[in-house]
Amino acid sequence: MEPAFILAAFTGGFAALALRMPPLVGFLAAGFALNALGYRATPELDALAGFGVVLLLFTIGLKLDARWLLQRQVWATATAHMAASVVLVSAVIGVLRFAGLALLEGTGWRTLLLLGFALSFSSTVFAVKVLAARSESGSLYGRLAIGVLIAQDVFAVAFLSTTSGSPPSPWALLLVLLLPAAPVLRAVLDRVGRGDMRVLFGVFAALVVGYTLFDLVGIKGDLGALVVGLLLAPSGNAAPLAKSLLSVKDLLLVGFFLSIGLTGLPDAGALGVAVLLLLLMPLKGALFTALFLWFRLRARTSLLAGLTLSNYSEFGLIVGALAASHGWLSDRWLVVLAVAVALSFAVSAQLNAAGESVYRAIGPWLVRRERADLLPGDRPIEIGDARAVILGMGRIGCGAYDRLVQVHGTPAAGVEHDPATVARLRDKGYRVVEGDATDSDFWARLSLHPEVELIILAMPHQRGNLAALDQLRGDGVRATIAGVVNHEDEIAELRRRGAHEVYHLYGEAGRALADDAVAHPRR
Known about the structure:
The chain is mainly α. It has helices spanning 3-18, 23-36, 43-62, 72-98, 109-120, 124-133, 140-163, 178-191, 196-216, 221-232, 238-261, 268-278, 281-294, 299-308, 315-325, 331-353, 355-367, 395-407, 419-427, 440-445, 462-474, 491-497, 505-519, and strands at residues 381-382, 388-391, 412-416, 432-434, 446-447, 454-457, 480-485, 501-504. Helix content is 65%, strand content 6%.
């Protein structure tokens, strides 16, 4: 790879961090800067970008319950939104055509619908990166957004198959054999252990079993990676595999964001059209929010999922390239779409960062439009007579729960946002409720007994613990609040926000190890 690509990506990402923006915005800017300097995408960069997207979809599949995709609030929302978006965007672009926009001279209705279709998709890459950065991929709104994006991927495959001139091979029917082969794949995953072999198995499953098999029979290989991930998801080692692939995937996705910027530089007219297309983003997010509300979800869940999906997708570039190859669209539109996608990422990143502020501003208005019969996962939460509440039921949270119940005899309840973890712990006898402790409405839905004596902040990230602490202090909770941090420099912030006791995970482990070792009698 060109050394300039690496330098530009690092510089752009570092600058974005300094401006408190997601690094991906800096990667996009770096791509455009490289383009302005005369660089063009290389086959190596395109290959890395493609591998990054494949691994991204594979890891999405590893974390998903396939049954979730069959929920009406997922597939019906995706279908209704796409139909409405195609009509709305096509109509708006049609108005621009009659206003004399040079890019649209001689454009027929088929091209308008094609542009509407391309701009109706939301970016899977962007959404997953944003959710992962906030550790909210397993939250209800995060799972809704991912489910809708997967449904859109299915529409994408159908479009590519019907317009590429090469329909799927009859051999594609043999892909159903992956279902009986899934237990074998899961058994291999369980046997490979940790380290290099686990990572190598993940790459093999995503690129060979998934991408290559589907591509050979004329089906989009990206979908194959997603399907294989879904088939492996029931394995107990699926989550560790996804974690092992995290760094590899993130590094390869840098190439994806650079490649968007390297697509082309816009002239004044193309830039103006791209900016006009950005004005449609609020309508896109508002439509998602309205549909989620209609399907019995709370205002906050609906709004945050809508914000996550309020962007344009890299798939728009694929549609544009295909349309240009058929002569349906001019090459200038490829540049317009590339700029619109890149700008939508930058704008959407800021919108998502301010998601809670947006909700506080319009939340009361949205709450009045909630359905009376909310979905069970979005209803009020009861914890009974618990005197201790643990926020975050990972290994630390479960250890605290066990100690409180078994040693101190204190009735306890755990709060966990991941439904799979909730179900697993309930099967083991834990009292656990599903909820997002960073959700301002969670505290309004939570029936917290006035005699609760202890609240433990055991979420894996400081941002979540701070958000929960702010909510607790705002509600005037008088219980003792204790927190756990991974980094020593985070202790002061938790104490400043009002935590009574704060423990450094590794420091406490070291002290406990030393104390037990010294107390152990010699033989």
